[in-house]
């Protein structure tokens, strides 16, 4: 019977892209394997993921996508995208069980590799006697905190949001303000916190943990994890640093409808700029700013006299701070200060919604990157040798900023 490996990413496009890159990497070592990727019904903008998966299917026939049935979240007032993701994945658990059974009829499943958001699948793998592994699309710095969370929980009775001036001592990490933890971890009475705490206690049951990083980048924290310092009262699964997994051709697709001509024009514009003269501003697949913030950024760029390439998206709507709803391309004339585009046309270029990030950060004209500190973007900047200005927005990005600035000295 042919052997297969099943991968289970969480819905955000950045997590999906990293999981696909993992599948590609595994195929270079085991080309006889069949890779099956379970796709939970996304609460996020689906169009960009569909486009990306179509490209992968056309170019890597050994990777097969399995779309799980649509589920309907019970809660209607969720405002944090992490909570929405957790609910969708929890409701998808029986569908994961069914799909694994279907795959096992045709293949011998060698393992289930899960995103840490997908920890609910661990019990399914155990029930079906399938070895289970976790794949962290974040860095080892986040894994250290996550593994140490049960210990932190036992050491204090307060929520981290109420420890405003308190620094946490986490093995392998620089001193970390409690309020710099990801939002779902700040309130111990929050349901998302309870879910993640439960996930953290289950991690030691895994057969192994893979991290999208490399030891030279995070050597101190990788050693702390491997030495068992982050799980003082349980086993630490074997840790494998398999990064940097990045998309060399950057064909992941955008959330808006930017045309190929627009994308080509921004690269052509870079071709005409002096070496290392342009600052690139881009804030990930979910990052959004209010109109007032966009005006302030525009004013800062114009007053600086600095050459720039800036990716602008529509402001948040539906009381959501991240882009989990369908968005069209922004009307730049109405969003930005009057006359800004005309006044800065010789020094700057504004792209609507999406730009080919890997091509940009590796372009010789780009000398700096203002980033949200998402881990994929961080790895891409490190790969390109590009210094960063850290502007964290959501998820584990505040934690990443601390490590990038204080530990790695790669960002301001």
From TrEMBL:
EC assignment: the record states 2.4.1.-
Q: Name the domain of life this protein comes from.
A: Eukaryota
Write out the GO MF terms: anthocyanidin 3-O-glucosyltransferase activity
Q: Return the Gene3D superfamilies for the record.
A: Glycogen Phosphorylase B
Its annotated pathway reads:
Pigment biosynthesis; anthocyanin biosynthesis
Enumerate the UniProt keywords alphabetically: Glycosyltransferase, Transferase
The family database entries (CDD domains) matched by this protein are listed as:
GT1_Gtf-like
**Record's catalysed reaction(s):** an anthocyanidin + UDP-alpha-D-glucose + H(+) = an anthocyanidin 3-O-beta-D-glucoside + UDP
Family under the similarity heading: Belongs to the UDP-glycosyltransferase family.
Q: What is this protein called?
A: Glycosyltransferase
The protein's organism comes out as Populus euphratica (Euphrates poplar)
The encoding gene is LOC105140790
